[in-house]
Amino acid sequence: xxxxxxxxxxxxxxxxxxxxxxxxxxxxxxxxxxxxxxxxxxxxxxxxxxxxxxxxxxxxxxxxxxxxxxxxxxxxxxxxxxxxxxxxxxxxxxxxxxxxxxxxxxxxxxxxxxxxxxxxxxxxxxxxxxxxxxxxxxxxxxxxxxxxxxxxxxxxxxxxxxxxxxxxxxxxxxxxxxxxxxxxxxxxxxxxxxxxxxxxxxxxxxxxxxxxxxxxxxxxxxxxxxxxxxxxxxxxxxxxxxxxxxxx
Length: 248
Fold this sequence. Notes:
The protein has helices at residues 3-9, 25-33, 43-49, 60-73, 90-101, 123-137, 160-176, 189-198, 214-219, 230-247, and strands spanning 17-19, 39-40, 78-81, 107-111, 142-146, 180-182, 203-206, 224-226.
């Protein structure tokens, strides 16, 4: 099988693909040596490592060049956290994703929040963005549609109503050609179980310190677990402490 087919096949509800998110070619090689089955960037980590912030603060040319270096550094499938696709309108959004595919990446996360703005794109608007991207990319690209329904609300407000809101988006995004559905911020297992049971796409969650363990996430039907910015933050903390010991 090829990289895209291998990657898509790893999304199995109950036996989730674990992505320990990286930020550059060196960190990708380290995670590959650890036994990873695929490589995924985290936009927050990429931004921090490049001396920028999150929310598309990394210039697109820098982001694309970084993606290409990562792809060349490892033999594994690579998926890129591409935030809001560096564009609002469907056509430039699709064109930017096509450029990303040209680096050799076989997938991307794209989110439905208005990067640099307020709130989320209306469902029909984001659906049009995803449909344009699918038309430009063809079938062999894993388009992981992230919704920020849960990240934009406090955890205590996560309830059945929020799950219904997320599922409406999941069905619309699936119709537009999305390959997966990413719900960072949702940690309540009962709600995740309900979402996984009714979502038309494999569900991706973000693991967080103090959150549900991998086995529990698998049990409720999660198909993919990302680690977001937490690997970078942990490593930088270790580096700072080691430097303090050496310099003190």
